[in-house]
Amino acid sequence: MVIDLPPVLDSYFRAASADDIGGIVAHFAPTARVRDEGEWLEGPEQIERWARDTRARYRFTATPLSAQPDGGAWIVTARVEGTFPGSPIELRYRFELDERLITRLEIA
């Protein structure tokens, strides 16, 4: 099944699947914020550390299952498989975008 994602999100998930940390970080605006595991991270350095640490800790892949616009945001449900208890699970990614970059991401 093909999921119709905005280009920046399609590219983000491709970089994530390739474990391309630089590629992941390049999809975020300089002032972007990420909330994951109850913690807020802000800016390129913290987002890079988050991307590197979570990938090293959980060795996961995230495959989009559905995507829908929600006001000024996109909600993506992804199947996440990795080295964590309960794998695989479905997680909800809420992305806010500007023209071409992610400005905010919340993962629940």
Notes on the structure:
It is a single chain. This protein has 108 residues and is of the alpha+beta class. It has one domain (7-107): Roll (Nuclear Transport Factor 2, Chain: A). The chain is 31% helix and 44% strand.
Short description:
This protein is an alpha+beta fold and 108 residues long.
Q: Give a count of the beta strands, DSSP E runs of length 2 or more.
A: 6
| Percent range of helical residues | 25-40%
CATH architecture: Roll
Protein structure class: alpha+beta
At the first level of CATH, what is the class?
Alpha Beta
Mean pLDDT: 95
Q: Which stretches are poorly predicted, pLDDT < 50 over at least 5 residues? A: none
- The whole-angstrom Rg is 13 Å
| Helix segment tally | 3
Instruction: Give helix and strand order, one letter per element, not per position.
Output: HHEEHEEEE
- In the residues, how many domains can be counted? 1
Major sheet characteristics: 6 strands, mixed
Report the sheet-strand fraction.
35-45%
Write the layout of secondary structure elements.
Blueprint (H helix, E strand, L loop, with lengths): L6 H11 L3 H6 L1 E9 L2 E4 H16 L2 E10 L2 E9 L7 E9 L4 E6 L1
Parallel strand pairs: 1-6
Antiparallel strand pairs: 1-2, 3-4, 4-5, 5-6
